[in-house]
Amino acid sequence: MKRKPLFNTVYWRKRLLPYVLVLPSTLFVFGILGYAIMVAIKDSLHKYPMLATSGKFVGLDNYVSLFQTPHFQHAITITFIFVFGTVILGLFLSFVLALALFNLSEKARIFRTITLIPYLISGVAAAIIWRFLFNGDVGFVNPLLEAIGLKPVQWLSKGTNALIVVTLANTWKIFPMSTILLLAGLQVIDKDLYNAATVDGANNRQMFIYITIPLLGSYLATCMIWLTFASFNMFSIIYPLTGGGPIRGTEVMALYMYRLAFGELNFSMASAVMILLLALNVIFSLIFIRLFRNKTV
Amino acid sequence: MHYFKKVLVVLIILLIPSLFLIASGETEAEAEGDELVELTVWFGRENFIPDNAFESFHEQYPNITVKVDVIPLEQALTEAATALSAGVGPDLLQTDSRRIPPLVEAGLLYPMDEELAAWKAEDPESYNAVSSAGWDHATYNGVAYGVAIFSGPFNYVYRKDWIEAAGLEVPETWEEMLDVARALNTSDKTGYAVRGPSSTVWFSSHYMSMGGTYDENDVIQLDSEAGIYALQFYQTIVEDGLVSRDVLAWGSGDMRAAFITGRAAQAPIGTNIFPNIKAELEYGVEWGASAPLYREGAKDEYQYASLGWPMVATKATDNPAEVGLVLRYLAEHEPAMSVAKRYQPTTVTTVWDDPSYIAEQPWAPDFAEVMLNMVPTPPNLYITQMDQIIKDALGEVMSDMNADPAEVAARYQKQLNSLF
């Protein structure tokens, strides 16, 4: 069998060039990220004296010790509530908003840009806004509740309420990106499919369930990966909003990791938390990709 | 063109010897026989840098160049550890004094006992002007690593006008303070404002003024009489509704704002915030301040706690003598006063009765005597772990009114002791 020459123009353009073009960025990303992950894995398997740069190999001791710590177990629980709360709420809001934006007239396209504003605001600024809104003494929400005859709520000084507030704040901050993703998905669905369905007598609900949702599969997977990933790693909103309090009520794994590293100077344990966070991100990404694998446009 | 070539050749001929002259030339400092030294100083806040920013120092010591950088106190430890491990750390570093032990244990600091002894011998007036807190904050296990030019306590501040209007006396004890708080507590203002379990330094200040002590490992004694009293105090202020319902979520800003904006009658506030209060309320008329109160029956055990931000020498320095000179400069009257006027109180005692300082900080004379007795909040190798345990204990008594402070203290004391 005759082999194709390596630099045959068509073969080169179609088969090799794409790989060559993505190679620099791939090397760049994996070079930096890969190095950081390798160092974190190594650190998580060692025990370092405080502020030292070398330590002794302890195998999985740091991981075992972490899972035996009640505060870390608590942080895992809080993290899962926070992440799944954000994913469910974020996905719902993204879908609603994406559909609304999709059906907007040409003149109202400015709203697509406005939608992105929360995402463009820094996490700390967003936290300050939300802290002001839900402050029990001088906040904006409690007077509103009182105005409609309800009792004021201790939003930030009760653990459960504070967790609700940080979940809302986090959703508000990150869901615009998933909205834009879904909007992009809606825009590439072939309109002929809807026309054909209309001819066949399908109503709006049926078209939404049997055309829109299945064809948005890969976009939904990407949205869920984004919402999950951004929530597992979220630090910039929670730290200035509640500091993990009250009484560890909003102490998620990312915050726990920060405290271990920069408070207790326990970098090996902090690295173990980082690796666990990374593993959770990868696992959930794989689950979401598998869930929507066959439902692509 | 030929003319230009000639000019160019002449210029090059003139330039070459000039470069040799420049290269072999001596600076003023070198001409005087002093070796050129470059020092790097990390300040923990921009505010800690004196107004003249080493200008007078450079005039006095032209052979020493001081490069200044600001590394936030919260990051100083990890940044310094990374930089010093790479051999590029600062010569002088500002840190929270409670964080000195990890730096010492990691071998990152340079003992300055000899240089400080030289300071004392050569300039006793300047050396002796620094209060004991200034030295204590920079000393660990008997070794001095520098000096704290700035050390700040938390003080008891109160609405003088409200207390007088209610026909009450300014309290001297914590028990009296609670009575005043109960008397002044209304629906739109609280009797007391304090930061809750999101920080421990305010609690430590209360605890030490209530007669609390630390053991040989510098571990707080929650299960002591003072410890249980302090936990009970925090529980009482919540149970009796003397603080905001949001106290569990409060940061220092919430507490300060409550007092400054007239939503709280009393509070524990650092001296550095006094200028902000003064901007809104007239000192001596509308508000007053004193050192923290004492616990009835425990006046003899009273301690006036302070935090400190010492400048400490690091192992990166090859020039400890010059580092010593920088410390002397920072402890001079004018540089220290320039910072104290706008930020944290200084340990340089000559500043305290300077008329220009008193003009800006009218409360200074009221604190001059007590500030001589300030003691550092003890440093600790496991300060963060210890702080976290105290926060948990504090959170428990402040959120559960049925919790028994003695039982909580005993339970968390076990955790504290297990750190060592």
What does this structure look like?
- The complex is a heterodimer of chains A (297) and B (420).
- In chain A, helix 3 packs parallel to helix 8 (159-188) and helix 13 packs antiparallel against helix 14.
- Chain A contains 14 helices and 2 strands, in the order αββααααααααααααα.
- Chain A is 72% helix and 1% strand.
- With 297 residues, chain A is mainly α.
- With 420 residues, chain B is of the alpha/beta class.
- Chain B folds into 2 domains: 28-150 and 309-369, Periplasmic binding protein-like II (D-Maltodextrin-Binding Protein, domain 2); 152-306 and 380-417, 3-Layer(aba) Sandwich (D-Maltodextrin-Binding Protein, domain 2).
- Chain B is 47% helix and 12% strand.
- Chain B has 21 helices and 12 strands.
- Chain B has helices at residues 2-24, 28-31, 55-60, 73-85, 100-105, 113-122, 124-129, 132-136, 160-165, 174-184, 201-209, 225-239, 252-260, 274-280, 320-330, 333-342, 349-352, 355-360, 364-371, 383-399, 405-417; strands at 37-43, 64-70, 92-94, 139-140, 143-144, 146-147, 151-159, 266-270, 287-290, 304-308, 311-313, 374-376.
- In chain B, strands 2-1-3-11-6 form a 5-stranded mixed beta sheet, with helices on both faces.
- In chain B, strand 1 (37-43), helix 3 (55-60) and strand 2 (64-70) form a beta-alpha-beta unit.
- In chain B, helix 11 crosses helix 12 (225-239) and helix 12 (225-239) crosses helix 20 (383-399).
- The relative contact order of chain B is 0.17.
- The model of chain B is unreliable at 20-26 (pLDDT under 50).
- The interface between A and B is medium-sized, with 25 and 36 residues.
Q: Can you give keywords for this protein?
A:
heterodimer, A: about 300 residues, MetI-like fold, two-stranded antiparallel ribbon, 14 helices, B: about 425 residues, alpha/beta, D-Maltodextrin-Binding Protein, domain 2, 2 domains, five-stranded mixed sheet, 21 helices
